[in-house]
Amino acid sequence: MELHIVHYKTSLGSLANAVNSNQSDALAVLGFFFEITSSDNEDLEPILSQLDDVHYANSTDLVSLSSNFSLKSILPDFHGHQAYHRYSGSLTTPNCLEVVVWTVFENTIGISEHQLSMLREIFETEEGETPEKLLYDNYRPLQDLQSRSITTSTFHWSYEEELNTGPSQWAQHFQACGGNRQSPIDIPNEDDVQYAENLGFIKFCGYEEMRVHTITNNGHSLQVNIRGNFYISGGGLGTRYQAAQFHFHWAKTSNRGSEHTFDGSAFPMELHIVHFKEEYGSVTEALNHPDGLAVLGFMFKVSSTDSESYDVILHNSSGIAYYGESSNTSFIRLFQLLPIKQENLHFFRYNGSLTTPPCTEAVIWTVFTDPVSISEKQLEELRHLHHIMRPSIPVTYGTIESNYRPVQRLNGRQVLKNFQFSAASRTLSAGIMLSIVICISFWITKNH
Q1: Residue 14: HSE in the Cβ half-sphere, 13 Å Cα cutoff
Q2: How far apart are CA 13 and CA 280, in angstroms?
Q3: What is the pLDDT of residues 272-325, one digit of tens each?
Q4: Percent of the chain scored above 70 by pLDDT?
């Protein structure tokens, strides 16, 4: 479905004057697309609940919407950035006068199949007219662009600062990217991070077996889309979060590449597993809530041998070497992609954002301390992916050599941890205790 909001130029005084003015900019029409959602869009109810009063064509009843109805409430949440396309056109119904400046937005509105069926039950015929005919298929076919041009507000962001589209430019085009809860961050020295006993440990449900994934080159990373009901819970999350996709961040060389850093130290790569809060139903809806997403971050270390687990993914990378290409794989055990120790994993916790535009501040971050192993050869395979579409002949330029966002200011946010002592701390503590015992024993022996 598509929504049109019609505006007339104020200097023309009325809609009728604007339509008859023959001015090419007399009307400004905003176009919004709808997408199917699994649940009803409650914001549409003030309109849909009045359909019985306009069941037939040319109904003369004046329908009053709720006094607190807001037109803005049914529009998309732009998350700080409006992506739209602009062109000069016409009314899409007779007499098709060419007096419209069209603005068509990329952000969509949700509507359920049930709510669409309600619209399909109104009539294009008047009451009592026979035969009655339902109102549907009320769209005009596409028209030829002719010599007209289309302009766009869309900012095609990248990680390349020299193109003025890199991370330092994001906030100029995506308001949220300049917010106070941005990610990634430099996680302080663990000794300076507060232990939170209530966090406990993350529980993984279904991670031992995941089937039917689509591996995609999205132009910024290698992304694996997850199908099925796989969840995480516990770990202080309060409820279940469903897995949606995972992707990777790396750099040109292995001295860095992770987005998060530990006390200033970077890792060669970072894996992000994105989950949405189950009650929100989708990533799109979850982005409207500060606790909408739970993202797990895993660091990598370089090993001398290939990781068999990551060969399953990288085996398909040649078929997705260029932006927009996808490949299917029938079976992946997500557990095999994580650290060897599956239970009682140590992690840091903080509230943050997406690390890519629109940088929405809707993420509960869980960043684990135990790294995953991968070889230098396997990292090189990822660095050979391209951020451009496949050309007619293979090329070596346009590769995704670095796709990490620099760390952002903590801005007073609290970072917590679910462990009291790291392995190193326990070893140090044991050493200190042993030294104390030896000193006491020496003192007793000396004085007796």
Answers
A1: 3
A2: 44
A3: 999 999 999 999 999 999 999 999 999 999 999 999 888 878 876 778 999 989
A4: 91
pTM over 0.85? The answer is no
Catalytic residues: 220
323 φ/ψ angles, rounded to the nearest 5 degrees: -55, 135
> Residue 287 corresponds to which amino acid?
L
User: Can you tell me the mean pLDDT for 137-144?
Assistant: 96
Strands 293-303 and 372-375: parallel
Residue 409 has which token pair? 């200011």
Using CA atoms, how far apart are residues 446 and 405, in angstroms rounded to an integer? 60
The answer to whether the beta carbons of residues 135 and 122 sit under 8 Å apart is yes
Please provide the DSSP assignment of 193-255 as one string: SEE-GGG--EEEESTT-EEEEEEEE-SSSEEEE--S--EEEETT--S-EEEEEEEEEE-SSTT
The CATH code for residues 2-152 is 3.10.200.10
By the 8 A CB rule, do 257 and 228 touch? no
d(CA 336, CA 310): 8
Distance CA 202, CA 346 (A): 9
Would you kindly state where each structural domain of the chain is located, as residue ranges? 2-152, 180-429
Listed in sequence order, the residues at least 6 apart from 230 whose beta carbon sits closer than 8 Å to its beta carbon are 205, 206, 207, 210, 242, 243, 334
Q: Which fold has domain 180-429?
A: Carbonic Anhydrase II (3.10.200)
**Spatial separation of the C-alpha atoms in residues 279 and 78, rounded to whole Å:** 21
Report the pLDDT value the prediction gives residue 442, as an integer from 0 to 100: 39
Token digits of residue 195: 């232990």
The H helix count followed by the E strand count for the chain is 8, 21
Radius of gyration, alpha carbons of the chain: 28
Concatenate the DSSP letters of all residues of 135-173 into one string.
-----PPP---TT---EE------S-GGGT-SHHHHHHH
Q: Tell me whether the CATH fold assigned to 2-152 matches the one assigned to 180-429.
A: yes
- What is the C-alpha to C-alpha distance for residues 372 and 307, in angstroms, rounded to an integer? 9
Quick one: CA dihedral 145, 146, 152, 158, positive or negative? positive
Tell whether the torsion through CA atoms of 115, 119, 121 and 127 is positive or negative. Answer: positive
Among candidate residues 223, 269, 218, the one with its CA nearest the CA of residue 246: 223
Could you report the per-residue pLDDT of 362-411, keeping only the tens digit for each?
Answer: 999 999 999 999 999 999 999 999 998 888 777 778 899 999 999 999 99
218 and 445 Cβ atoms separated by less than 8 Å: no
Per DSSP, helices labelled H in 2-135 are: 15-19, 45-48, 113-119
